[in-house]
Structure formats: structure tokens, C-alpha cells
Fold each of these.
Amino acid sequence: MRGIAFGVAVVALGLFLVGLGRAPFSDPPEGFHAAVAKNVATTGDLVTMRVNGVRYFDKPPLPYWLMASSFGVFGPSPFAARLVQALSAVGVAVVTARVGMLLGGPRVGLLAGLMVSANLGIFIFARILKPDLLLILCLMLAFAGFVLAYRGAPRWGLVLFYGGLGFAALAKDILGALGPVAVVALFFWLTRERPLAPWVPWWGPLLMAGIALPWYLLVELRNPGYLYYNVFETHLLNFTRQRAFQDEDVPLTALQFLLVTVAAFLPWMAAAPWALARALRRPWPDATARLWALLALWAVVVIGFFTLSPFKLPHYGLPAFPMLALLVARVWDESIDAAPGSLRPRTLLVPVLIVFAAAAAASILAWAGRLPIPDEIMSSVDVATRNRVVRGQSAVAPTVERWAAILATCGIVFTLGALGMVVAVWRRAPGLGLAVALATMVAFLPAAGDGMATFARMRSAAPLAETIAQRAGPGDVIAHEGPLENGATLLHSVDRPVRIVDGLQSNLAFGATFPEARELFWDAPRLSAAWGGPGRVFLLSGRDPSRSVVRGLPEGRVHVIGRAGGRWLYSNLAN
């Protein structure tokens, strides 16, 4: 049993760690989150997060505490910053494998651990700076605890359940941590189990609150209004699109969200409908069957809730992936053993063959220049691209030439995978087909990592930030047009506060209401006055010149110093 968890961990470490620091921070979101963590490491303030001297309240502290610790060991590098997310993904794979072993045996655990690692959605978010994988790890630990408690180890299981939820509240938000509680309550309603008191011991909610609430209360004491902002503004009002402190994020439509979620979990998503129906079908004769139903219920609630919600982003379906991996591993396991009532092998194999064949054809045609990548795809899967396109700006997308080697690799990998699946379908061999599918995904994901690195280099503000660092003198003013998170890599290169011009539609909008931020947020007239003065001013902007504040600056004093990553660097002096 331990050997299986160890094997899953080795595969996951190989997938998520190799090449982790190869690319610079992508803007957004990586430079911004790394700057928050760097401030924690520098100041030692574990309560109030700050970036560029502005208080930051959109995310809880656990990801930044861990990144700051990583910086202390490895230095403030892209590798050190991403390491927390990568190790969180490894933890998700190991915990998923362990739950699979508890419910379905060693092979189900092995398959589930590999499937939750070998998909594009988890892979991408294991290698970028966002707190989602850390949240998912905490939630999986909570569900693992509930499984242990339900199977006869109530004390330690419930300690893990409530403790995992407490840390989930510190990883991303309180309301997200309460999601499993709501689903477990729905589960008990469906199973009609009574009494419920043993599942809510007096110390359980106290443990959860003891982990999470001290930090939230301290932040409220130091920063009045934080709890209202965190609970109502960033969550409840965000879902209804009625926030007073708006950020730039443009939500997906329901159809876009579903398509992105399905694509991110391919090829395993092909078996998900059967796996969900299999788990939710009554009767549930024993505890194990009911627990499978709980896993399916979580996946359905997560995806269904965000599909119907007015606000959703591409990664909001990720918390369902570990449960989907467990459920899909179960049906593949049954098919391999040809158990009575299991799926016919070709029903599982043919959809995977179609996915691989379509991916091979698309990669080869794109490599040959016959299939351009539609702008709609980039704007659906990448939040920053979507924000630019919706606001009438040009998207930052790699050219076919820069993608050529990656597309060629993908074409070869998926062609070989499709041929292997043809053999598996012909022989009606689900075990062979599963091995081919896993090998294909493990071979494909490093190429996807190279694609991520290419995209990060094209969108990073690092080249222009380095130009500013080399040219700026002690008294020069450095400004950034638009929300600072769109170019926060700048903060890693300069040694002074950056003025933010027309950047209140941002994650820093609430922080901007505090007195010390007033001198950091400028409007266009303030910039124009400084631009026409004797001192030198640099302006980094990600907005097209036709939509930029530079249109209103004094004529003859706007000089383009550089252009990179979909950004322009201007100065009021030519040299």
C-alpha cells in the first residue's frame, strides 16, 4: 500500500518539478503573488499582506507564508515561488491514491493517483502561482478524514476532516472551506442517516475555527472592514456581479466553463458520465457504496454550482478533479477485471482513441500552418487574455513559429497514442488501452510545460522591468498603467514604490482606501503633471496606445523606450 503512494508521488514529482523554474514570472498572475510573498519574507508581517506598500486582502495568508518560507531556503526565484503549488499537487495525487486504496483497493488507488496527476488542468495549476492546488490539497485531506471516520475511525478521521477545512480557509477562503460541509450535509440527507451528532463533536468546529479564525480576526482588528470585504465583496457580491471594488476579471459563460472543464480533464473525462451515474445509482448497500456516492455528489455540486453561477473562471472546476479521477479509476478497474455489469471495453477505449486522434490531427495541422489557433480558445482558457479581448485590446499569443517544436512533439506523441489505442480497441484490451493512455499523457505534459514556458516568456514584464532597473536614477518616477497585477514582475526589479495610474479596478481596490495608498494611486492629470515636469518618468503600460493614457500626455514628450510581452515602456525623456 505504501509502495503505491510512493510510486504515485515519484511520477507526480517528475511531472510537476522538472523545468519548474525555467520560465520567468508570467504577468498576470505570478509576479503579483510572488511580490506579496516577498514582502512577507522581507517584513516578517504574517497578518497584513502587502504589495508595493498597498494592503492586499483578496487571498488568505497560507500560500504566501509557504512561499516566503521557500524564498528563505532557495531565494526569491520563480522555482522557489512555484514549488509550493507543485508540492501541493503532489500531495493531492498521494491523498487521492490513498482514498482510492481505501475504497477500491490498490489498483484503484494507483490509477486514481496517476489520473489526477496526468491531466492538463492539474498540471497547469501545479506550475503557476495561484492558491488553488493548496486549497484542493486541504479539501482532499478533509474528505480523506471523513472517509476514515465513516469507515470506523471516527476520532482521527474527524480530526483530519475539521483540521483540513480549517487550513482550507487559510489557503483560499472561508466559504470555499464550508463547501465540503454543505455536501456532507446533503449526503446525510440523501442517505437518511441519523443521528448526526457524532459527526459534529463539540471539538470539531472548534478545531476548524481555532486554525482559521485567529488570523481573520487579527486582520479585521488591524484593518477595519476586512471581514465585510472578504465575505461579501469578494464572494457573495462577486457572484452577483455587484461588487463595489471591482477587479478586471471577466467571467466565462456557462458553455465556455463546461467546455474548458471537460477539456482540462481529458482523456479521463470521457468516462466521467458513466462513472458518476454508476456511483449515484441507488441502492447503496454498504458504507463503501455510500462513500462513492459522496465523491460523485461533490463533483456534481462543484461543476453544477459554478456552471449556474453568474461568475466563474476557467479553474473553478479543478476541485472536482480528484473525485472524478477516483470515480473514473473505479470504472476502468472494473473493465480490466471484466466484472459482471462493468462497461464493455470499447465503450471506454473508443472515446480516448477519438481524443488522441483529434489532438494529433490538430497539432500536425497547426504545426503545418493549416490550422490557426482561434482567439476564442485563448480567451476561454486564459483569464488575462480574456480580459484584454473583451476590452477591445489585442491578445498576446505566441506565433506558430515559436510553437513549432512543441506542436511537432505533441503531434508525434498523440499519433503514437492513437495507434496504441487502435491496437487496444482491436484486441478489446482495456488494460493495454489504459497503459497507453497514461503513457501518452505523461509524454505530452512536458511538452505542455514547454508551451507554458514559451507563453510566460512572451507575456512577462521582466524584459521591460530590467530596462527600467538599468536606466532609472535615484529620483526618477516609475509608473504602471492599469492594475498592478498585470505587470507586477516590475516590483522584483525596482527598489522604490511604483505609481499606479488608472489601476483601481484591481485586487488592490480595497487596499487603496487606506491612507498610505493615496500617494501611490494616480489619475491621468497627476501623471500628466509629472510628465511635463523636469524629472524623468517611466510608464509601463499593457494597454494598446490607442487606449492608453499616453494619448493625453504633453506632445513631443512621449518616447517609446521598449516593447515586449504585449507592453510598451514610455518615458518623458529620450535618453
Amino acid sequence: MTDLARWVQGSDPEFNHGLAFYSSDGRFLAVYSSDGIHLYNADSLTQTRLIESPPAWRLTFSPDRKTLAAGLIDGSIKLWEIATGKELRTLNEQTVQSLAFSPDGRTLASSSFENTIKLWNVATGQELRILSGLDATVESLAFSPDGRTLASGSYNGTIKLWDVANGLETRILSGHNSLVESLAFSPDGRTLASGSDDDTIKLWDVATGQGPRTLSGHKGFVVSVAFSPDGTMLASGSYDDTIKLWNVTTGQELRVLGGDTTAFVVNDVAFSPDGHTLVSAWDDGTICIWGVPPFSSFVVRPTSTATPELTQTPFPSLQVGKSITLTSLKMINATNGWGLEIAGHIVRSTDGGQSWSDVTPSNRPGDAFGSFFLDAQSAWVYDSNNPSRGLVHTANGGETWTMLTQSMPVVIGGMPVANGGLKFVNEKDGWAEAYNVGAGHGEVSLFGTHDGGATWEQIPLSDLPNTTIISFQPGDLSVCSICGDRFYYDPTRMVVFNGDLASDSSGSVRLSVSFDQEKTWKRQILPMPSSQYHDGLVAPQEPVFLDQQDGYLPFNIFKSKPDQSQEYCVLAIYATHDGGLTWIPNATVLENVNLNTIMDFVSLQDIFAVCGNDLCVTHDGAHTWQLLHSNLDFDNVTNIEFAGPSIGWAIATDGRSYSLWKTIDRGVSWTELHPAFIP
């Protein structure tokens, strides 16, 4: 870490509480001090505005960068317009303890000493809901990235997860033995980090509540935690005057920062959205900006303003002949494939995955890569956290990369194109999908390119006929995100698949398809694969079209018992041979699967799916399945890739390290590869 800038904003001797927070686009840095809230240009550290404010406990930007909220010591909440500094409204809360904006910026959650959590409409200031059932004061709040879940941390050491749509408590996480000061969801929403007055940090599996893993090392209350944008690191600030950086996968302590200020408490830590910097705020008003390796280096100019200059440097070089660790891969055929190395390198193999060359673009647009691999030669790469950094493309297997002139599109509200939301059908024609989510509401924005990604235009969408879910922005499509709805697009068709996750079972599979750019829609209601699942909830997955006419729709059907344990969860697959106009139910289902089953559709006949600890395979289009008991525990597999019915690869992790495996006998047996770097 590099100490880029350090300055003292001043403190109130009767109220020492320094705060610092980045805006969602990384352009602004808000800092609280005794004379108000200072807004800075995050690149130059020049002040752009001072908002006069009484003493504040909490400070946060709305995700759309339009509003700044502060919880004041007098118990109220104030909202300001960032562009003008104008005070918008005051919300009459009682002794504010914590604040959190929903990902879409439309809802603000607050907690108070009155043992309540309130949800507010940001636009109107109206109180939407009070969450009940609290048995202690809530000190910390955090929304999940999809906006469906709100986490609250209490004085009694418990953490509760709430369904935002209905205000019901869904899970209690117990493990801390003192007040939970801080909460943060990982960028993928799978992990919740909590910092406590018991001097520990715990990492929780959000889906199961299992764990937690405990990170120990602080010698004081842990009052702030923050994930890096790529989810690989966690920063924590403590009463012991230090900041610690942790490897999220291994739990290893990476670095200790601070320990040399005159204060005793690190009130806030926050990563910039691009992951290049970390800001920290101490009780005495000291603010520090730190450069985060290995992605960037900064030069501190010897001026009174300590303005940092950003210069991008290459990743640390891979060592020839040394083993490398892959976290994901995309195999094109039996010999050629692309992969992402754990430190961030993009690598390429031409020998079936045994050896890999580094093809990371030197003019890379960023460090949190989104990508699309068309074939063995052509690929596109962008920064999935900051798409305005642009898009690079290679047509020769990564030997050279071209920076495309126009940035990737960004949705109104600041949501970037999703990682995995970029697709091309050839070198010129492609599309990008962005998905903005809020409290139960999802909004799809679609963009197309016909010059390989240099320029983009929005593809206009409209809401389905006879729907009660209305989009907020013209040209978007609204779906029910909390229901598990899925949207699919290619130049031939658009399809919306409906889920049951926020309602009772519908007893059917429901979808709407359009073949004329939404001028007309055809509604379909398909029967369950068997009557025994009539009371199950449907959770559709991403459909797969293998050509213009043939495709598959996989979906899970599950049911929970009254105690919320699972009664059953199966995977069903329907087929289409007319481009999605009609779908053929298949009576055969896979049991012993999880929601969002990991699958690979190799051909019309050959499909592989993870079934608990084993691999399931069909070679007749899902009419019959074979359960393969092999030497690889598929419960730990995160990625499977087959180049045909016989040859395949898998990436497995135990939560601390990753391993690469290969099969040449249709998944019956697996050999661990030890991929090595070659120049």
C-alpha cells in the first residue's frame, strides 16, 4: 500500500467522528468534519463543495450520485442534492444509528435507539415500512447487491437478514458475543462480512447462514469493514488505530496500515469503485488515501494539496515454468481456451489447459474484467466496475489488443454492463445487457453495436402488456427481480421467463416471447414436468440456444418445509425446436441439485450438470440421465467446460485455493492439472 495523501480536516473536541465515503462512480469523495461535509474531486483531491451540517454519525451517497444522506447527532436524517448542495428534506428519525441506500437509490434504510428499522422513499421522504421483531438496538445496516435483502447488526451480537419486499425476517446469524458495529456484502452478494466489539470479523455464507469464518488480529472494536470491488480483499478499521487488509479466500492478513496517528479510532474505510484506492478516516479528522497494489501506482506531488497522479503499471510478471492458479476458464475446443488467473491476468492455452501464456492487454481498461470470448482468436475485455474506461479487443489470440474509442454504456443511475452481459455473434455485431435492481424491482437496459464495440446505441425495450410492473426509464424493461424473473435477448428473439420466488406456487412455467422487437408478444403457460411438483416454486435459469431453432430452458423447482428446510429441489429442462415459439416438457428431472445448478450444454444431445457431490450427464437430450461417481467432489466445483461429449475441464475450490481438473472419458474420471506459465 502507498500512502498517497494525508490531511487533517479538523475535529470538534466535543464530537470527534471523522467520516469518509466514495460516490458510486468514484468521482467524488465525501468527508465529514466539524465544519460540515466536504465534497472532493476524488482524482485531484480538490474541494468542489462544502455542505454545512450539524454533527453527523453516518454519511452515505445514493448509488445514482444525486443525493447525499447524513444521520445527525440530533436524531434526524438530512438529504442534500450533490450537484447544488441544496438541502432536499429532513426525515424525522429518532437517534440515528445507521443508514444504507438500496442499490437503486430509491429506498433509504435507517435504524435508531428505538429498536426499529425504517424504510424511506428517498424521492418523497415518506416512511414506507417499519421492520418489527427487533430485540436490541441496530447499530449497522447493509443492502445486498441485488436489493432483495437487508442485513442488520445489533447490540446483542446478532445479525438479522430481512426480505425487503415484505419486511419479514428470513434468517438470524449468531456468532458474535458483542455489538455488531459494521456490515458489508461482497460484490457477488454471496458473503456478508461483520465487524464487532468482540474485536473479530466474521464472514458468513448468505444463502445458508453457515460458517462463519472468523478473522482475528485486531486489538480493539472493529467499527468498519469494506470489500474491494473485485471481492478478493476486505479492509477493516478498528479502535486499535489500525486498518487491516485481508485475503477473503484464505482469511490471511495481508497488511496493516496506520498505527501512527494521534487518534484511537478508525471510523471509516472505503474502497474506490475501481479498486485503485482506499480511504480511511480517524476520529481526529485525519483522512488518508492509500494506493492499492498490484493494479496501480501513484505519485504524490510535493504540494500542499498532496494531489495524487495516477499512472497505470503492469501486473506483476508471472514466473516462467511456475504453476498458476485459474479462477475461471472458457475452453473453445479441445486445445484452445481462455482463463482468468487469480492475480488478475488474462491467460490463454493452446495445449488443452496444461500450459498458459499471459495475454493481459497492456492497454487494459481496468482491473475487474468483464469479457466475452468469441473463438480461439477473438475476445473483448472491459472493466466490469467502471465501463467508462472503455473496451479492448483482440483478433489474434491476445498477441495484440486494440482500445476501442467509446466507453461501454452505463445505465442511468450508474449501473454498469453486467459481467457476463456482453455477447457477440461475429466480429461486428453484439449487444450488452445492464441490470439495475432495487427492492423487488429489476430493470433491464439493452445496448447494441455493429462495429465491433466501438460505438453503442440503446435497443429500446418496453414493458410486457397487461403487467403491473412498470419501468422507471424509457426504453427499459421491468421484471420482478425478487420473483426470479429472467430476461433473454438475441437478434432473433426476446423472452421473459417468470419465477415464483416471491409468491405461492403457480403450478406452471410461464414465459412471454417476441420475435419482432417487442411489437407483439406470445404468452405461454407450460405444465410442470410432473404433478408431484404442482406445489413447487419455479426458478428459471438462463436459456441456451444452440442455433436459430434449437434450445433449452433449464429451471429449478423447489419446496421448503414449514421450518424453512428444503423438502425438494429438482432441475427440469424443456426443449424448443422452433426458436422458442413452443417448448416441449421433459418428464425426467434431476434430483439432488441446488438452485442455479452449474451446467454445460455441449450439444443437442450432450448436457452435463452438477448434482451435489457428483456429475450428472445425458447423451440423449435430457430424456435419461446418468449419475457419475468420480474422484472429484463436485460440491466444490465452480466452473465446468466441455469441448465435446468426452473432453472436459472443471475448476474446484475449498474456499482457500483453486484447482484445475480434466477428463477425457466423459466425466467418469478426472486428473488434476498443474497449469504452468509459459512466455
Amino acid sequence: MLRLTIEGNEIELYENEPINLSYQFSNLQEINASASSFSQTFRVPLTKKNQDYFGAVNEFGLITTWDPKTKASAELTSSTIPIMRGFIQVKGVYVQKGKYADVEIVFFGETANLSRDIGDGMLTDLDLSTYNHSLGDTELEASWAGTLFNGVIRYGLPDKGLDWTSSNIWTSSNPLELGDFTPYFRVSALFQTILREAGYTYDSNFFDNEDDLYLCLYNGLLTPASLTDDETTDQILVGLNSNLTGLTAHPNFTSITAFSDSSPFFDQNNNFTSGTTYTVPYRGYFRFRVNVYGRLDHDTGDHVSMRLSRNGNELWTFIDDYESSQFNDIAHNDISPLFLLELGDTIEFQYVVGNSSHPLALDGSGFTNNSTWWRIPYIAPLAANVNVTSNLPEIKQIDFVSGLQKMFNLVFIPDRNNPKHLEIEPFGDYLASGSQKDWTNKIDLSKDIQIQPTTDLQARRYDWTHSQGKDVLNEAVFKSTSRVYGRYRVDDPGNDFASGNKEIKSPFAPHVVSRIPQTGYLVHRMLLNTTETDKSLKKPLPRLAYWNSLIDGNLFYFNNLYQTVSATEYPVFSQYSSLDANVSNKDLSFGPERPFHIIQANPLNTLYYKYWRPFVNELYSSDARKLTAFFRLTRSELATFEFSDKIYIKDTYWRILSISYDATSEDLVKVEMLKVLGDIRDCTWLPISIDKSNGQIRFENAAGTQVYQLSPNFSSCCTKYGYIYDETNQRCYQPFEQ
């Protein structure tokens, strides 16, 4: 007997009124659809007992206590077996012959709505204060050892705009600052925080085992954002509000003392004094911009130079011995390189003329192109207390979660009894966890059994891709190939019935590792390919990478006391689960790519091969089939089935796509299924290892036979995984770095 309870109140039902329920795993035509369940609309009689709950909703002019805008929790049971939990919505009231009334309701099975519950919050809205920390050499080294917050935070060395080369890389005489290191945050810990703050719990073997997957904490700041320093308050803009004439300093540089910090200029933290001097408030990187407009009163033969001084000595010369023709009535607007300045350093604007009898005049008309002013538009403090949240990249929490789903083909399965407790696993792992059930004798042979190919459900083309990163390497790949690094494409021109293109696109940029020019050091060069002085990305896309541990190479950096620390290893993150990648490692690209540094061999386990290939095979294989049939299933079987179950019918296994039935009767159940094809081999011969002595790839077939030599008929089993096929000796080789 079917029972409906709403907020603990039992509701009387029509004895023969059908209540059609449906459970659906996914919309087969949407490659990223989520799980859902629902029921069709049905009616309940407005009996006295039901009226005690709903009120007199049949009375035209009477205002009832029932609120149609509010969800009411509900449960359907059959002979004490729970069928579905969720909520009801009242759709209307029907009065018959002025005497009898029905209440039309729809029952929604409660499912997880992660997008709704996470909302539009950004990563920077998360509370990660428990991970805030001082940044010193002790914390740096603890992160590499995996003891800083149990490995949740590790520090790496991406180039964020310093543009390292062999001429400016760290040395014992030019060590790295602590702020030159960049924190990376463990993805599983960030994912757990997002779900916890949205009110969810979950079980996931996948996230439990992905301890080496990290998010780069970089949002455009050259150094990690601090808890205490707000660099914007220490920026200045000072200039001339009126013309300045008669400047005759010669032969030594002299400071101009007439700069104003009054509107339209500013000095928020009182670091600029006496119309001349900026005092550096803390150790950090500073950038300057100047605009000069004026003239020498001698048309030919005289010269002028201008600079910013540091403690009275040259810091940056931006006008170097200009003649009148180069200088007069021309707006000179320049931006400086980054300078590392110390607490207490004094910065002044200075000039010198070639002849004191030929004075200089500078125009002053406020903050305009035809005026003289200078400013500090950028400060990167060398943070002592790192604010983790302030370093997160700019992305919505739900986009971060859906990005992980797109990369690893994750399924989110809500618990039947608690929809906010999820089981989260890659598609293939989830299906492998199911039970095997034999429904051969449960199928109703008196009804049509429909078996369909999946050809009309396929798109002509699928693309799996990350987002374009705009950094020097990603930009070069995009310009030369018109695609993002690591894209994978499934193209089926042989299917006359397929149509349209579909794209599965993550919001992350590829974390590509390459050599610092003219060195052997491997880093992610997250800087712009530009001739401008400022090469830093202003709004970088988030980047995921594997922690590759410490790699051989000399490293020099300051400790808290500004003493040089030397080490023989440096930290590396890359797209590979091992920097010296082999066939068996993992790759965060969707498809194989020629690397920008030497590896042993392209990994077989790209994102597509490891996480998406089994799913696509169920749609694209010529053996793929969809089955629709009717079964005689008990209410207990309906209450305990899982979408991961493998259903055996005669000689074939199937997985459930949807189940529909009338909950008021023990009638037939309509089930849609997709044929389980198993692990279809991607190619006759799959790469398994490499011979380091000669660079040849070893292959294995389904029978376990291993070979190095592939006939030309199987050359595609070499090239599709990013290797190079040599027709002369019929061998397959790992390509050199780009």
C-alpha cells in the first residue's frame, strides 16, 4: 500500500490514482548532465483528514494558512519501504459539482543542487584563515617536506613577470626573496572547503588519493598577498599644479622640491614629504611611472637628464642627456622596471642641465599629458604573513567545481536518505563499484523490447580543452595551431547521422613547464610575451599542477634575517605526475602534446584516455546500444537499485539510464539502459614503456604480447599518443622537447 506523508502528516490518496515516478541518471544527449529524479503530477482528494493539513483551500474567499510558495518536505513509502523523499508543490485545486474537491500536487524527489547551493560565490569568499601563515625560510622548507598544514600548502617557483634568464636568475650574490616563491594549495582541501561551506558532505576515493594535485595561488600580484600590508594605500601620485621655471642645476643632479600631493594628486599614507621625498614603508618590489613636459630655453647645443634617485644615488634614469630637439614640448611618459627597495629608502625626482645659463622649465597643469608628475602605481610587499584567501585566482566556486568535473569526468550521486551527502567519483570508477544483478527472468516478453544504436545521439565532433592561458607558451601554441595546448578531439566523419559540435571546456589554463632561457631550470613561465617592461599577467586564469617534489639544481634565497640560504634542489610543479614523465604517469592535458622539456615518454593516461574514453566508447562504438524494455521489479528492488549496478540480461550487461513506474501498483517498470562494453582497447597496440637506451616505445596487445616494431598498418597506435613513427625501421620514438 502506498503512503504519502507531508511534514509528518499522512495524506489520504485515491486508491486507483496513478503516481508515476521516474529516476534518471542523465540525459544521454548531454555529455555532462547530472543525476535527477521526479514524479508526474497527481491529485489527492480533499477529505476531512487532508483538509486538516491543507486547510479550506477549496473555499473561494477564505484565506488559508497554506503557503503555495513554500516547499513542504514529503516522503512516499510502499509497505514501509521508502520509495522517494523530497518535497511537494501544490499546483491547483479542482472543485467538482460544487461539492467535491481535489488538490493537484507534484512530488519532486530531492536531489543535490550543487550549483544552487554554492551560488555565485567566488573562491575569495571562502574562509581559509586557518591556513594563513608567516612566510619565512622555515615555512618554505616545511612546505617542501609536506609538513606545512600537512602538505595542503607547498611553495613553487613560477615566473610571474620577473622574466628570468641566465643573466638575472638567482645566484649566491643575487638570491631570491621569500616573496618570489608562490604558494600552491591542495585541490582536495579546497574542494572540501567549498562543499562544506555549501552544506555538503561527501565520500570520494578520488579526492582522498589526489594529494599531489594543486592550484597555483596567483591572481596577478608579484608576491604573495599579506595579512597586514595593503599596498594600494602606499601608492602615490605627485606632480606640479603650476609651471616651474628657472631650473639651472649644473653639474650635479638636484631634487625638485615643488611637487604637490594635493588633489588631483594624492599620498594616502603620508609617505611623501617636503614636496620632494618618498620614504619606502617596507621591503618590497616597486614600479614607477613618470610624465615630463617642458623645455630648455636654448634651442640647440644644450642637454637635460632626469632620474629617480635612491638615497641620493641613481635608481632609474629615464631622460638621458636629451638635446632640446628631443626634449622640448614633448610628453615623455615612461614606466620603470621593478626595483627591490628597503624599508626607509628615500626616492626623489632629480634633474641636471648641461649649462646653468640655459634654464629648464617644466609645465604644471595637474594630472595631464602636458604636465609633469610621477607616481608609484605598483607595490609588491615581500609578505611576512600570507593571507591565503587574498591569493586565490579570480573564479567562481561553482566554476572551479564544474571545472574539476569536466577534467576528471566526475559524477555526483546524492545519498537516498540524505541528498546533501554525495558520492563523488570519476564516471568509470563509479560504475566499477556497482553490483551485478540478473534481470533476465524479470523482463516482460509480452511488451516490445526496443534496441537502438546510438548513432543519432552522437555529435559529429567532441572537443575536450582547457582555456587559453595568455602566457608566453600557451599564446605561442594557440597562435601556431589555433587551439589550446592539450586539446583532444573525437571526430566521426563516417557517421552520416551525427550532427553538430560539442565542447567540454575547463576554466583552467594549462600549467606548461619549460626551461628558463639558457639554463637547465624548469618552471612555469607565467608571463606575457611582450617587449614591455611589465611582463606580468594581470588577471591570470587558474592553473592546476602536480607537485613533482624537489629537483636537482642550485637554489639561493634570503631567510628571515636576509642571510643567503643555499640548497642543491628546487621545487617543481608540472602537468605530469612525475616531472621525468613516463608512459605510466598521469598528464593534466586532455590529449598528448609534445612537451617543452625533456621527458622519458608521453604518458598514456591523459585526462581523456583515463577519465573520458570509457564514457565516449559507450556512445561512439559501433557496438553501442540503447535498450528500452519493461520489467517486473519489486518495490524493494526499486528502493535499493543503484545507477552503478550492472544488469545482466541473457548474455549482455547493461547500465541503467532511467526507471519509470506507477508507485500505486505492482505493475511493470519501464527501464532504459545502455550497453556495457567493458574497457574497449583504444588501439590494437598500447604503449607500456620506453627503452631509455634508444628512445623506442614498447607496445603490448590484448594477448599480452610485447613488441617494439609496429607494421605501417598500426602506425596510428604510435602517433595518436604523441610519439613519432619511423617508417624505415618501423619503430616508435618519443619526440624531442619543443
